[in-house]
Amino acid sequence: MNGSVSNLISKFQKLLSENKSTLQLVGVLNEIQKDITDFLLKNLPELGNEIYPILKYSDVINYFVEQKPNDNRIVAGAIVREFHQQGQVITQVFLDKNHDLVCDPLGKTYGRRVVAKEFDTELKETFGSQNLIIVK
User: At residue 99, what are phi and psi to the nearest 5 degrees?
Assistant: First the structure.
């Protein structure tokens, strides 16, 4: 990912190894999440026309399994949520071993963006108060 995210991750690992306070670790984690979210929002796939009345956790995971491009660089996925006038936008993208976005040969990010009016309980609980989920 970009240099600032790598620097924050290094800082977090250093603090962790030094047994720093939970408050310091949470602060760095929040910075990492913000940087990753900002980066993803700048490199999003286009928003699709489909609106899910209820988006299920299983729908999100099945997308990663069934729609995964045949690209050996892909080792993980990211799910970002953002608020939308009709509910929430869910962005799903594929990541490489360095947590960089994986793009096709033309530079288009693999992934999708959909609007969901609601989430099922499992997806709500998985997000909790966060706006980013990394899946492997």
Answer: 65, 25
Could you give the angle at which helices 3-17 and 22-42 cross, rounded to 10 degrees? 160
Residue 16 is which amino acid?
A: L
Residue 32: how many other CB atoms lie within 10 Å: 20
Residue 18 CA to residue 3 CA, distance in Å, equals 23
- In the chain, the domains with their CATH numbers are 3-40 (no CATH), 46-135 (2.60.500)
Tokens of 84: 């939308």
Instruction: Write the pLDDT tens digit of every residue in 108-135.
Output: 889 999 999 999 999 999 999 999 999 9
Residues near 41 by Cβ (< 8 Å), separated by ≥ 6? 80, 82, 91
Answer yes or no: are the C-beta atoms of 113 and 79 closer than 8 Å: no
pTM > 0.85: yes or no: no
